[in-house]
Amino acid sequence: MARFESSRTLFDICETHPEVVSVFVSNGFPQMSDPEKRQAFGKQITLGQALALKGLDPAVFAGLLEAALARAAGLCESGLKHEAAAEIEVTGLLPCPVRVPLLEEFEGFVATLASEQGTRVNYELKAASQGLDWMGHRLEGPADDLPDVFLSAGFDMFFDRQRFGRFRDAGVFEDLVSYQGVNPLFADVGLRDPRKTYSVIAAVPAVFLVNLDELGERPLPRRWSDVLSPEFEQRVSLPVGDFDLFNAILVNIFKAYGDEGVRRLGRSLLESMHPSQMVRSGKKEGARPIVTIMPNFFTKMVREGSGMQAVWPEDGAITSPVFMLTKKSKAGELQPLVDFFAGKAAGEIMAHKGLFPSLHPEVDNRMGSGLPFLWPGWDWLDSQDIGGLIRHGMQVFEQALLEVSA
Fold first, then answer.
1. Where along the chain do its domains lie?
2. Which helix (H) or strand (E) holds 215?
């Protein structure tokens, strides 16, 4: 965005937007916290030069700056529009790193839709960090009372037989994504639902960040089975608080390794940290994680020479899908919204701002080719009570924590 152009100085940016000072401080520019040093140092270096100096990804860093502005302005609590006469209702969660730019694009789209076609849209799109519990009451009534479009990442609610199950089985939802095929990055993954119930519009890949200083003589972990081995017991940081991603990890580990794999995952846990904390975990005192499991987005904040190495698992990055569910009964009315959320513009926001690769065939995901992804498969998902599996998996995981800490 223009307010964070690479040619602007750090001093100029921080004077205009003091809310972002903490972002610079936490990513290798401690002098920005001191007003005198901020002026002396910040006037001499542009944003582009600073990011090049630290080896930071410009798109990812811009996302962190935008998120800091959003928090300060209270935008993390917005994403809400309600008027009694609206014909369409959209509800759900958006991944935090892309929520602000995606909402800005969506709000413009909704305004255009109202002015050109007379279609009014209500929406409540919260940050993914808030979880789905607030949405639960919407599933207690008949199908007619449901929102018309649901959006969320992860497996928690959309595959729970006690929540969405009765609507899914009754054929309430239909995949209305109009493009054919899939992005080449996902050519062999099988993310499109062959039963045309769920729409997957993007993915959040989970990868490893390895602290080489803590690794010692151990071999570099390259597969999920490596992280589950006794060598890494109580030396792994997991995104337990990131419900969407952690549930995807639980589901995939259970499918591949059963209860024993989930138990090993629990025994591996040293601590739970937000991904932005994980990137800086090499500076912690005391026991430090050897491996942190995090969205690929946050590995781009690792500074050159920090002793941290990102590893894309050889058996695949565990994939937390960004889902969209749309009502079959209102297909014609909803098609413009489906085309927006599944379209190229929204896909580029996902891929370029959050490093959440898009399924849209024309989006350049900027991730090369041949990267493996772990996906449990639609047949297996349909055969399981995923909501019950997640609850069971958490019990096994927590019991393992108690055992290893006893």
1. 2-54, 77-203+319-376, 205-317+392-405
2. helix 212-215
C-alpha torsion sign, points 231, 237, 240, 246: negative
**Whole-angstrom distance, CA of residue 237 vs CA of residue 224:** 14
Residue 366's SS3 state is coil
pLDDT at 35: 84
Judge whether 62 and 353 are in contact, CB under 8 Å: yes
pTM: 0.79
| Selected residue with higher pLDDT from 378 and 135 | 378
DSSP H helical segments within 55-138, as ranges? 58-73, 96-117
Q: What CA–CA distance (Å, rounded) separates 340 from 286?
A: 48
CATH class of 77-203+319-376: alpha beta
- 308 vs 386: CA distance, rounded Å: 34
pLDDT digits (tens, 9 = 90+) for 17-51: 888 888 888 778 888 888 888 888 888 888 988 88
Burial pattern 16-26, b for ≥16 Cβ within 10 A else e, equals: ebeebbebbeb
Please provide the distance, in angstroms rounded to a whole number, between the alpha carbons at the two ends of the chain.
51
Q: Which residue, among 289, 320, 154, 318, has the nearest Cα to 225 in the 3D structure? A: 318
In this structure, CATH architecture of domain 205-317+392-405: 3-Layer(aba) Sandwich (3.40)
Instruction: Give the model's confidence band at 272: pLDDT under 50 very low, under 70 low, under 90 confident, else very high.
Output: low
Count other C-beta atoms under 10 Å from residue 286's C-beta: 4
